[in-house]
Amino acid sequence: MGKPDEFKITFTSNKRVYYAGDMVTGNVVTKSRKKLKFRSIRMEFLGEAKVARANSKDWVTVQSYFDEKVEIYGKGANQDGSYPTIQAGDHVFPFHFEIPRRRLPSSFEGRFGCIRYSLKATMDRPWKSNYNAKNAITILEIVDINEPWALEPIVMEREMQTQFMCFNRGSIVAQMRTDRCGYCPGEAVALTGGFCNNTSSRTKPVTVSLYQKTIYTQGSKKNEINKCVKVSKDKRLQPHRPIQWENQMFSIPAIPPTINNSKFIKVSYLLEVSIQSSRGSLVLNLPITIGTVPFRPPILASAPPMMSPVYPLPSAPPADLAPPYEVNLPSYSESMATAQLGPPPAYAECVFGSARIWDENDAAGGAVMGDTSFTPMYAFVSHYEYRPSTAGTFTEEETITAEREPRLDAVDDGLSDSMDEESD
User: Fold this and answer.
1) pLDDT of res. 19
2) pLDDT of 108-118, one tens digit each?
3) Buried-state track 257-272, b at ≥16 Cβ within 10 A, e below 16
């Protein structure tokens, strides 16, 4: 008897993104040049949130959302009789699982934890090492940014007085307004406002940064990670020369949605508009929500709301819901059929890249075959059009993944009085 040359999990139509209530179907595929003898092929469908300690690869906190196991071929562990033998060649063993109709948090892969929905196939061989294959899917919580709370704009104004010794050297004033506070990746935040530099020195370029804040919870301990996702820069502020923005467009890359219904992992986003001068920094922090249902024109947005929990503003997240919390949610396809949602969106791979889904805990179960990397995919609007005819763009944009702390207050950044000479 031989061993499989290939042992992997595939999905019907290569589908990789699902919602609560959807059916996950696919096949376990084996290829071998010799006969294979084993007791069974077992499938496990697992949804869980896992958190690790800093500088550790061991999971110390686990929250299970569901764990389903089924034998898709062969005999169970307690069944008698001879074990099956399959001939050399290609063999396909179909499987299907229904995702529970619960309010499941969206898939997320982070530095110290993950919310992961994985499928594991095991070729069970008594008295010998098993063969395993593992794959993962993206499950998205329905976060509809067409709800009234997500359509409200964010308005903010700040003024910073600049001083040298005991003398007032003027002020810098910033006013900013967003078109709404909820966005889907691929869409753009329309920023409208103005800046006025009432000092004698020019500033650094006006900068808009998108930060992702992730809070990992382990008992009473919390580990907060701030990651700068994208930075866009505009012109410097010249002395006594105001600048006006009208629908300055800041596009949202393919990033995880806001997550506030996981007990151990929470994800939120902050849009930071900052101006640095030789005497400090003026910062406007605009909290936004990243959703999974794209913005719809008013004619579609007037459709009846979904029969699902209301998603409040990021400043008032719902209470943690420990599974099994059944709300009998409709699937995305069912909601679309009743005109509660628009057509399913397109999806794009997360800009943060892939994660390894085979860890040390899996290694004890035998050898793993095939690729074990996984890249989550998120709803993405490929050709977003902002309706007003006037829209501005930034002079410089960069999508980054470096972890960087957002500035929460105006602080003295230690810049010298003489700014580096750069062209406007």
Assistant:
1) 94
2) 999 999 999 99
3) bbbbbbebbbbbbbbb
Q: Which residues are CB-neighbours of 46 under 8 A, at least 6 positions away?
A: 64, 66, 67, 68, 116, 117, 118, 119, 120
Indicate the CATH number of 148-291 among 2.60.40.640, 2.40.128.20, 2.40.50.690, 3.40.50.410.
Answer: 2.60.40.640
Fold identical between 6-142+343-379 and 148-291?
yes
**CA triple 419-423-424, angle to 5 deg:** 95
Give 62-67's long-range contacts (Cβ < 8 A, gap of 24+).
Answer: 63/262, 63/263, 63/264, 63/322, 63/323, 64/323, 65/100, 65/102, 65/104, 65/117, 65/323, 66/100, 66/102, 66/323, 66/324
Q: Are 234 and 206 in contact (CB under 8 A)?
A: yes
At 188-228, the pLDDT tens digits run: 999 999 988 887 788 888 899 999 999 999 888 889 999 99
Per DSSP, 335 falls in state H
DSSP secondary structure letter of residue 360 = H
Give SS3 for 307: coil
Q: Are 333 and 142 in contact (CB under 8 A)?
A: no
CB of 201 closer than 8 Å to CB of 239:
yes
pLDDT above 70 covers what percent of the chain? 74
Residue 336, φ and ψ in degrees, nearest 5: -65, -40
Phi, psi of 168 (to 5 degrees): -80, 125
Residue with tokens 């139509």: 13
Render pLDDT for 290-338 as a digit per residue (tens, 0 to 9).
Answer: 999 999 876 544 444 433 333 333 333 334 433 333 445 555 555 554 4
Question: Domain locations in the chain?
Answer: 6-142+343-379, 148-291
Give the chain's radius of gyration (CA, Å): 26
Measure the CA–CA gap between 47 and 362, rounded to whole angstroms.
15
In whole angstroms, give the CA distance from residue 347 to residue 350: 9
pLDDT of residue 3: 84
pLDDT tens readout for residues 148-173: 999 999 999 988 877 655 445 678 88
Assigned fold of 6-142+343-379: Immunoglobulin-like (2.60.40)
Closest of 267, 254, 230, 265 to residue 112, by C-alpha: 265
- Chain mean position to CA 289: 11
Asked whether the bond before 324 is cis by omega within 30 degrees of 0, the reply is yes
Q: Name the pTM for this structure.
A: 0.81
Q: What is the DSSP letter of 58?
A: S
